[in-house]
Amino acid sequence: MNIFLWIVQIILGAAFVLFGSMKTFQYDKAKEGMPWVKDSSKGFVLFVGAAEILGGIGLILPYALGIAPILTPLAAIGIAIIMLAAAIFHGSRKENQAIGMNVVLVILALIVAIGRF
């Protein structure tokens, strides 16, 4: 089970750091590739990107380093909340494809949270 949790943590952590980095540091590229970014304020997009980067780091580093490992399941819960809010947001915009991905990410984040608590 530990190996499975590490695989999920690494995949989720890497994905969130990459997607969050694009929103935070490559705003114009995010604006081209994600329709919702065009309709949102730059501050909101930067906030979401920063939250995703911190969540992705929080999924891996605390548990890997053994320094405050309780932060890993808390980061997973935070990511699940972000993705649940994203699913609601995309649902209001009728972006059904994005909702499916959000639901998968919520499930994976909850698996990590439950497994690491």
Give structural notes.
The protein has 117 residues and is an all-alpha fold. It has six helices and no strands. It has helices at residues 2-25, 27-33, 35-38, 42-65, 71-92, 96-116. The model has no long low-confidence stretch (mean pLDDT 92).
Question: What's the helix and strand layout?
Answer:
Layout: H1 2-25, H2 27-33, H3 35-38, H4 42-65, H5 71-92, H6 96-116
Helix pairs in contact: 1-2, 1-4, 1-6, 4-5, 5-6
Kindly state the percentage of residues in helix: over 70%
The string of secondary-structure elements, in order, is HHHHHH
Structural class: mainly alpha
SS element count, helices = 6
Radius of gyration, taken over Cα atoms and rounded to an integer in Å: 14 Å
Can you tell me the residue ranges where pLDDT is under 50 for at least 5 consecutive residues?
A: none
Overall form: globular
Strand content: under 5%
- Structural domain tally: 1
Distance between the amino and carboxyl termini? 13 Å
Mean residue pLDDT: 92
Largest sheet: none
Number of separate strands: 0
Features:
117 residues; 6 helices; globular
In summary, what is this structure?
The protein is an all-alpha fold and 117 residues long.
